[in-house]
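Technical note accompanying the year-one report. For the benefit of new consortium partners, we illustrate the data format agreed upon in the data management plan: each record pairs a sequence with a structure-token string. No post-processing was applied to the example shown here.
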Amino acid sequence: MGERRGDVVTMNEGKAYVFDLEGNLVDTLVSPEPEVGAQFGWRVATDGEIVVVADAWHSVDGVSRAGYVYVFGKETAVFEVDDLTIDPSSVDLGGTLTISLEVTNTGAKSGTRPVALMIDGEVEDEKTVTLNPDESETVSFEVSASQLGTFSVEVDGLSGSYTVTEPEEEPTFWERIPGFPYESIILGLIAVIIISRARKF
């Protein structure tokens, strides 16, 4: 199934989804050569384990919207993305968090693909991974928590969220004293009374 106006690395770049007969998502395909508005996934066809995807408006040799067709399957690199992790899921303002995921090449050839991190629908960062057949790699992004709020995260169809909160204020010296302030005040008054009585004698 194609999502020709899906945003991956660029706007309306497009992507395609591969499902098994039970409706489970097997793979998310993206253009090997991302281009704004190319609309990868305009048409999708399958034959066994072979998937053919049209990149309808991709430029070719300087010719706008000439179009490409990509063939994915046993004889190509096929990437699967899994295990999206956001650590920590709640962070103080000014802190940092790590967003990571596992990328695996389940195809028969080596290949390269971009991995784009989107936060609140905008591309925050992008990395490129090159893998041999049956090879996996953990891709990590460091994100600065510069604004308060809850933020949505999406990477290649995987989604999650994190929250940025105000840091807790450090207690003062006196607040660190056990029982402050009531017990400390009472002890202080008792000490003053004892000292006053002692002076009378």
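Partners are asked to follow this layout when depositing records. The CA atoms of residues 62 and 90 lie 47 Å apart.
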